[in-house]
Description:
10% helix; five-stranded antiparallel sheet; signal; Por secretion system C-terminal sorting domain-containing protein
Amino acid sequence: MKNILFIAFVILASGFAFAQHTTVGVRIGSGSSGFESNVTNITSNRVDVASEGEKMVGYVVFDENENVVKSKDINTSYNTSVDVNNLQSGFYYIAVVSENDQVSVNTYVKP
């Protein structure tokens, strides 16, 4: 998960991710792998994320003020769950990193 924080901060700093206010993933990067991630299930304790095109190797969760509130390296997988139980109500970005360093950003609103 090399450079994940740098990549994620560049995404957020550029304002690109802020323009995305849906739960549809937005792919960032110049690769042609077709990597995308999508939120597939939301509960009060968990957000499930699935990827297409490449396996995921980690994620970073940012709040609306660009603060990192959670990050995790994961074994390469097409599916993962993000524990959101301890997050306060609000708007979050989930930046998922693929095995080829592609980044896909999803949004999540915790009630």
